[in-house]
Write a structure and sequence with these properties.
Distance between the termini: 17 Å
Helix content: 25-40%
CATH class: Alpha Beta
CATH architecture: 2-Layer Sandwich
CATH superfamily: Hypothetical protein
Radius of gyration: 11 Å
Shape: globular
Order of helices and strands: HEEEH
Length: 74
C-alpha cells in the first residue's frame, strides 16, 4: 500500500515528470500541459509559484502520468 503523498510545489512535480520523459507542450494561463510521447500520457499541472499543489490535484497528476507514486515521495 502506498503512503500518503507529501505536499509538493508545482516545480517539484515538473522535475519528476521531466525525469520520466514528459515535455511541456502548451500553457494557458497558469495551467501547463505535459505529455510523454512514448506512453501517450498527458497531465495538466497548475503552476502557481510558491504555492503547494492541492492533494487532489497532485493525486490526479500521479494517476494520470503513470509515474510510480514512490517517485513523488520525499
Amino acid at each position: 500500500m502506498a503512503g500518503k503523498l507529501p505536499k509538493l510545489q508545482a516545480y517539484e512535480v515538473i522535475t519528476i515528470l521531466e525525469q520520466h520523459g514528459f515535455i511541456l507542450v502548451s500553457q494557458r494561463g497558469s495551467h501547463q500541459k505535459w505529455r510523454n510521447e512514448d506512453t501517450g500520457k498527458q497531465v495538466i499541472v497548475s503552476f502557481h509559484k510558491g504555492k503547494q499543489l492541492p492533494a487532489g490535484t497532485l493525486k490526479s497528476i500521479v494517476e494520470g502520468s503513470g509515474v510510480p507514486e514512490e517517485r513523488f515521495q520525499r
